[in-house]
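Need tokens for this chain, all 545 residues.
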Amino acid sequence: MDQSAGPIVTNRDIEGAERTLGVTFTPAERTLLAPAIANQIAHAAARRAMPIPLSDIPPATIFDPRLPGTTMPAPAALHLPRTDIPCPTDDTEIAFAPVTAQIHWIRTAALTATRLTRIYLDRIARQNPALLCYAHLNPAALDHAAHLDARAATGDWAGPLHGIPYACKDIIDTAGIITDWGAEPYQGRTPEADALVVQRLHAAGAILLGKSTVGALAYGDLWHGGRTRNPWNPEEGSSGSSAGSAAATAAGLCSFALGTETYGSIVSPTTRCGTTGLRPTFGRIARTGTMPLCPSLDKIGPIARTTTDCALILATINGADPSDPSSIASSFGGDLRTLPANLRLGYFPDDIAADDTITPELLDHCRALGLTPTACHRPDLPYDSLISILMAEAAATFEPLTLSDRDDLLTWQDENAWPNQFRAARLLSAVDHIQLDRLRRRTMQVMHDIFTDIDILIGPSLAGPMLGITNFTGHPCLCLPAGFIHSPSRIADTLAGTKTATTSAIHRVPHSISLWGRLFDETPLLALGHALETRLALDLRPPGC
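Here are the structure tokens for all 545 residues:
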């Protein structure tokens, strides 16, 4: 029995055997069990005989991150810092500029959507063969840009992102453009309709450049076309599963990108590639038209070069949809230009100690901004055990692959890869699963209590349990570059970790910290993120890009 899911305790002595933490049965009990197990097998066989389409039937049990006492934000206008800087003549400078600056240049006729789109397509042609961060390009991108320029000439603006080119993670549907989830069994899959977030971006005037690569079935950075590379060190993978979205943004191959996260898939590649990633509150953004993996965990969010850009994109794609029963209607707005008065910042000392590379210095930067970081306490619970919920949901979603043996078509085949994880998940106990759901509720209460006394938590992105905790509780996370470390090449290996190559030169690469906030309260995270970003003033253009 997989004790990582938490033991089911039935302690007894059987013929002098040592007491254990597993379930044990006497011979008489085994005899009684046989008919019941036969009935369970028959029920399972009958259920498996009814195919369940991936996206048509969501679970009857819907996860809601809100506990009693959760306050939803009041509607407010979004106020962003101004970026009215002159438009450069150099294409590279334009490519790496913030979205907010590019918008200003297009609005003032210093730049056209066509020129900006050509800049990115030319850069993709030169760099994508090495980085493998785009799976498919949009053949209509330049036509769309020309159409937007024609509208702009008459003063007809499509929306707040008029003329801004972006990359879309390859598990988010785009009509007529292959969206095959990075996985061999689904190669050539072409949706008939855009995902809801793609529709919202189109309505806002954004231009789809193409589909950014994703680790097969949203895990890691290895897909059917190869391994997506980190622009800072092409010897290593970009991490995943929003591998191409982070790499393309970091390398200046798009203005911004869409990513998704179930357990680290925005935070991990954002950390690796030196971008800024926002994982919004669970349910804030409807997932209609996006590959389901884990219905109680999947989230869509922006990956960009600044926190201000993340805020603008979040405002554009925010909103619920009846077709996604997990989505929750919530407004988004507020003022990112200054830190909220009396902002209370907390941290977990053990987590800070677990990452001695970047995070301790960030507390000093926060103090310089006028904040007083407060040490917080977190109960010692088996948080890592919650991962079995993810495995069970993912295995259920892709059960047809397991039962048909088409999982053998996936390139990645080892202990940590999906095929083995899907098989192992079939051995999880249903009783354990219910008890894990109770542990999840207890964890939600822990976070609710912590955020009674503070407004924001700060800590290392990958060290400590906060990545897992906040994915299971649904709390928002802003992951942003905080400095550089010297590291050998790393290869994406586990859900949130890496395997380090043993024979590799040392490379200077970015590293991140994370900010976590109350449910549906992303604005303070973004305001503090902007203040830290401005204070640090890091040069985040990879060498050679």
